[in-house]
Amino acid sequence: MHDGWYYVVTREKVFRIRQEGDELFYEGASDNFIRHFFGFDEDYAAIKKQLKKDAVLADAIKQYPGLRIIKQDPWECTVFFLCSQFSNIKKIKRNLDLIAEKFGKEIIFKGKKFFTFPPPGAINDLKKLKKCSVGFRAKYILAVNNAVSDEFFARLRKLSYIEAKEELMKLPGIGEKVADCILLFSLDFTESFPVDVWMERVMKENYAVTLPLRKMSFFGREKWGKLAGYAQQWLYHWKRLHKNP
DNA sequence: ATCCAGGAATTTT
DNA sequence: AAAATTCATGGA
C-alpha cells in the first residue's frame, strides 16, 4: 500500500490497483487478468445467499461481506504452502520475499523496485535456498521445483478434483491440506475444503464434528459441494479474527 | 527463557 | 491403522 495504491506482484507480473467508491482503477494488468485474479465473474451474491442458510456462515458473511478468493499463480501458491507447514503467515511471506530476491528478476514499476517470483526450475541452488530461512522445508521446495512445470499445473486443471489432488500428493512435502490449498487458491477447484488447525477448531466448536482431521475435508465437500472452498474461507477468517461468541 | 506457529514424513505403539 | 515424534526458524 502506497499513495492509495495496492502494489501486487504475482509471478512475473506487477500491477497496482486502487478503489474509489465503487470504482476500480488499475495499471499494469489487462482487464481479463484482473477479472480472473479477483474473481469478478463469479456470482458472489448468489454464493453468499446460498451459504447464509448456515447459521455460523451467516454470521461470518455478515462480518466479512467483502471476502474473496484471489486466484494465485499455481507455482507460487505451491511454494507458499510448502513453506506453510509448522510456520506462520508472516514468516511464510518473508520466505517468499527472500526467494524472489535471490532467484527472481528485479523489475522497476512506477519508479519502484520489485522482484518477480522465479518460474518452476529456477530455484536450483540449495545453499541459496537455505538462506531464505525455509529450514527443513528446503529439500521439499527443491524437489518439487525440479518435478513440476507450468504445463504440469495446466494439466491438473483438466483433471477431476480427486485426480488432481492425488497428483499433487505424490510430490514430497505436499499432504492433504497443502494439496487442498493449491487446488482452491490457484487451480479453481472451488469444492476444495482445506482443513488446518483453525478449521479443526471451527469444526469441533461450531459444528460438533469430531472426525479425524483427514475426514473433515470430505465433510466440507459433502456439506457445501462446489461452494465448500468459499465456506472454508469465511469460516477460517472468522475463526482467526473473531472473538469467540 | 519457554512456547508456539495455515503440516508432513518418519517412527513407534 | 492409529498415535506419537521430529523437523528449523523467528516472534511473542
The level of helicity is 40-55%
The N- and C-terminal alpha carbons lie at a distance of 32 Å
How many structural domains?
A: 2
Q: N-to-C SSE series?
A: EEEHHHHHEEHHHHHHHH
Helix/strand class: mainly alpha
Strand content: 5-15%
**CATH fold-level label of the largest domain:** Endonuclease III, domain 1
CATH architecture of the largest domain: Orthogonal Bundle
Q: CATH H-level name of the largest domain... which superfamily?
A: Hypothetical protein, domain 2
Identify the CATH class of the largest domain: Mainly Alpha
Main beta sheet, described?
Answer: 3 strands, antiparallel
* Strand order in space, largest sheet: 1-2-3
Number of helices in the DSSP assignment: 13
Number of strands: 5
Extract low-pLDDT stretches. Answer: none
If you average the pLDDT, what whole number results? 96
Shape: globular
Rg over CA atoms: 18 Å
Give the key terms.
13 helices, two-stranded antiparallel sheet, 3-stranded antiparallel beta sheet, globular, mainly alpha, Endonuclease III, domain 1, 245 residues, Endonuclease Iii, domain 2, 2 domains, 11% strand
List the helices and strands and how they pair.
Elements (H helix, E strand, L loop, with lengths): L5 E5 L2 E8 L2 E5 L3 H8 L5 H8 L3 H9 L10 H9 L6 H15 L2 E4 L2 E4 L10 H5 L7 H10 L2 H9 L2 H9 L6 H11 L10 H11 L5 H12 L3 H14 L4
Antiparallel strand pairs: 1-2, 2-3, 4-5
Helix pairs in contact: 3-13, 4-5, 4-10, 9-10, 11-13, 12-13
The structure holds a DNA duplex (13 and 12 nucleotides).
